[in-house]
Design brief:
The protein has 120 residues and is α/β, with parallel strands linked by helices. Helices cover 25% and strands 23% of the residues. It has three helices and six strands; from the N terminus they run βαβαββαββ. The strands form two sheets. Strands 2-5-1-6 form a four-stranded parallel β-sheet, sandwiched between helices. Strands 3-4 form a two-stranded antiparallel ribbon. A hairpin with a 4-residue loop joins β3 and β4. The radius of gyration is 16 Å and the shape is globular.
Length: 120
């Protein structure tokens, strides 16, 4: 369970302001000295690399890929049964003071639900 871990969900329908809230919270949390990770749920595909580049070719050939550059680091892993989100969140909690999760209403952690202008 995630109940005792520093995981907090930001939930709501599309357009309710989840990303905007997280974007505004992050500088304040970081200014307090917290290390924060943000997890984004995407129901559509993710494009993190350019098709045809070496790292994308490695990934499409079946390897999990760690992309390391001076500006950023990206780790791409293939989905599998042992890659459940709760396990990944527990792992992130080893390295971060707080993990914010956008768009996963079913996670077993404290969360806030944002309403859009069309909801009440």
């Amino acid at each position: 369970m995630l109940a005792n871990l520093p995981v907090f969900g930001i939930c709501g329908s599309s357009g309710s302001g989840k990303t905007t809230l997280i974007e505004k919270l992050l500088p304040r949390l970081l200014a307090r000295g917290l290390s924060v990770a943000a997890v984004k749920q995407c129901s559509h595909g993710i494009v993190v690399d350019q098709p045809g580049k070496d790292s994308d070719r490695f990934f499409r050939s079946g390897a999990d890929v760690f992309i390391n550059s001076p500006e950023e680091r990206i780790f791409r892993i293939h989905p599998s049964n042992d890659n459940k989100l709760s396990y990944k969140l527990k792992t992130l909690c080893l390295y971060y003071d707080l993990v914010l999760v956008e768009g996963r209403k079913n996670i077993s952690s404290p969360k806030v639900w944002l309403l859009s202008d069309n909801e009440s």
